[in-house]
Structures are given as C-alpha cells and as structure tokens.
Specification:
Elements lengths: L9 H12 L6 H31 L7 H13 L1
Length: about 80
C-alpha cells in the first residue's frame, strides 16, 4: 500500500477525528479509504446512468403516448 501525505482543512480534520473517536473507524486512513471506495462506486453508477441517458437521447423521439411508453417499459421488466 502506498503512503501519502495529505492536508485537511480544520473542519474536515475535526470531522475525521470525530469519526475515529466514535470508533466508527480505527484510523483516519481507514476512513479516507472508505470514502474513496464510496466515491468510486458512486462514479460507476453515474457513468452507467450517463451511458443510459446518452443512449436514450441518441435513439430519437417517440410519438407514443405516456401510457404506451409505460406499458412497453413494464413489459420489458416482465421479460
């Protein structure tokens, strides 16, 4: 594992200390690594949604009614 030296603003450092003091995490390093893991997972979800939105936007417009679109969506979920 690589070792890094980072600086925190006072409010962020105090928040980190509070989390460690509450025994939620054993160290600041563990907490920072967990926050990074969470951010990476979130980025994967954002990328997936962005891809889906881009694909939908590129597929064009529909002349179907809201009811027809809903029915088609439900039928796809039931397949």
């Amino acid at each position: 594992m690589s070792r890094q030296s980072i600086s925190f603003t006072k409010p962020n450092d105090e928040w980190l200390k509070t989390q460690v003091d509450s025994k939620e995490y054993s160290s600041k390093s563990e907490l920072v690594n967990d926050l990074i893991r969470q951010a990476r997972k979130q980025q994967i979800q954002i990328d997936w949604i962005s891809t889906k939105l881009e694909k939908a936007e590129n597929s064009g417009f529909s002349n179907d009614s809201k009811e027809q679109i809903l029915a088609q969506s439900k039928s796809l979920l039931n397949d």
